[in-house]
Design brief:
Layout (H helix, E strand, L loop, with lengths): L1 H20 L2 E2 L5 E8 L7 H15 L3 E8 L1 H14 L5 E4 L6 H5 L7 H6 L22 E2 L2 E3 L2 E5 H6 L8 H12 L4 E4 L5 H17 L3 H6 L8 H15 L16 H5 L3 E6 L20 H6 L1 E4 L12 E6 L2 E4 L8 H13 L2 H10 L11 H8 L3 H11 L3 E3 L2 H4 L2 H15 L5 H16 L1
Parallel strand pairs: 2-3, 2-4, 8-9, 11-13
Antiparallel strand pairs: 1-2, 4-12, 5-12, 6-11, 7-9, 7-10
Helix pairs in contact: 8-10, 8-18, 10-19, 18-19
């Protein structure tokens, strides 16, 4: 009995060491790597993605054992920070180019992936903007593509049924309030319980409309600050969106993604989210269900940028950032079997097979230039929303910064807070601007 107990204790210790120290070689001869994945299992095609992406990798690479942890939204980010603080990062993890993953980049906790791309001769296969140095001064994550963070979905059936047309200006949008509210219909649905949503999916666009494409460069150079007119004007538009009834204050209590069904069911005329939300409205391959059927996608849903606002200095702009992707822990020994396995996985996750699959489900547009998007659409008979999304990208005339893509968490988290306070009517625009400017000066100094 004592011998059995000792053996079990030793096995437990070995298992614990493997998980704590990252990838290693298992007793079966496989190289084991830990992965922290970002996925919302309630989204359409999420279950299918596990089969089509992760299980397919295991079939292609039986010599690699992947221990995968699936998380989403704030629990994911909290776990990343916890792992970073413990010095226990997974070998491969989903990652942002800045903002939410600033700790990983700035503290050098992830590897520069440029040498791996160069060694395999595939650096030029990716769009140059997606392989440029990121916030830490190196390519910390290999991105899925370019992301526009403010997409305005239009339920055109709701507009038709109420004698309305797609708005060209803020005033057009405001004029819809009494017409739609009389029918119990919201004008714009957003899910703003999580602070990042308003900041990333709408306010970053507004800041760009008034600050211009170079607002962050001028801010960093000391030419402007957050108490100047550009930022005051952007905050004023946000304040008016609530005061004018275009966005209901109760959206601040709605969890991310929860309002999509209401929008699809005609309870709101517009829904604002990031471009990644397209996939949520398409058909789930596993269940065959969709918030908008392919037929309804053709007739009842359109995509637009937020309409023109009085005083904006640029028009038809959108907040754009290099997309999320995959990173490798800096703790993996160079030249090791674990490093080779981790790179094999990242290369696969950002390779033609997975990027093409993600295109067909509406999850992302590819960063690989070797993928012919039009041909993929034709060959796969893709749903109308995919083509509409491609057309929408072409209508973005100016790309402006995403706030949490350029600012430090010490600043953008303050912005998240004051945006919510404005929405709740707890602060005024000038006080909010001063609060943000104080945070900026404190961080900069």
């Amino acid at each position: 009995m004592k011998k059995i107990t000792v053996v079990l204790l030793v096995l437990a210790m070995v298992t614990s060491m493997v998980f704590a120290q990252g990838g290693t070689e298992s007793s079966s001869g496989k190289t084991t790597i830990r992965v922290l994945n970002y996925i919302d299992m309630s989204e359409p095609n999420s279950a299918n993605e596990v089969e089509m992406v992760w299980n397919e990798f295991s079939r292609l690479h039986p010599e690699i054992e992947v221990i995968r942890e699936d998380l989403f939204n704030e629990p994911f980010h909290m776990k990343v920070e916890s792992y970073a603080a413990q010095g226990n990062l997974p070998d491969v993890l989903y990652c942002w180019p800045s903002g939410r993953s600033a700790t990983l980049h700035n503290e050098g906790l992830i590897k520069d992936l440029t040498p791996f791309l160069e060694a395999d001769g595939i650096l030029d296969d990716y769009a140059p903007t997606t392989t440029a140095p990121q916030i830490g001064g190196f390519l910390g994550e290999l991105p899925n593509g370019i992301t526009a963070t403010s997409m305005m979905f239009v339920n055109t059936k709701v507009l038709r049924d109420n004698g309305l047309e797609i708005p060209k200006t803020y005033d057009d949008l405001k004029a819809m309030v009494p017409v739609l509210n009389a029918k119990g219909i919201e004008v714009v649905q957003m899910d703003c319980k999580d602070g990042w949503v308003m900041q990333s999916c709408l306010f970053s666009l507004l800041a760009g409309r008034f600050g211009g494409a170079d607002w962050y460069d001028r801010l960093a150079a000391g030419e402007i600050d957050f108490e100047d007119e550009w930022f005051i004007n952007a905050l004023t538009v946000l304040d008016n969106l609530y005061k004018d009834g275009i966005i209901n204050r109760n959206t601040l209590s709605i969890g991310y993604g929860s309002g999509r069904g209401d929008f699809a069911n005609g309870k709101a005329a517009f829904y604002i989210d990031g471009d990644w939300a397209c996939g949520a409205f398409q058909t789930d391959i596993t269940t065959g269900q969709a918030l908008f059927s392919p037929e309804a996608q053709e007739t009842d849903i359109e995509l637009m940028n937020f309409p023109a606002v009085d005083g904006e200095v640029i028009h038809e702009s959108n907040s754009v950032v290099v997309g999320t992707g995959w990173a490798m822990s800096a703790d993996i020994p160079a030249g090791s079997a674990e490093e080779a396995a981790a790179w094999e996985l990242i290369k696969y996750l950002e390779g033609e097979y997975v990027q093409t699959y993600r295109l067909t489900t509406g999850a992302a547009f590819p960063s690989l230039t070797t993928i012919d998007v039009a041909q993929v659409c034709e060959d796969n008979g893709l749903e109308p929303l995919v083509a509409k999304r491609s057309d929408w990208y072409g209508r973005i005339q100016v790309a402006t910064p995403v706030i949490d893509g350029v600012l430090d968490p010490a600043v953008y988290e303050v912005i998240n807070t004051v945006l919510a306070e404005i929405g709740l009517g707890k602060t005024d625009v000038k006080t909010a601007a001063k609060t943000v400017n104080d945070a900026w000066k404190a961080w900069k100094n």
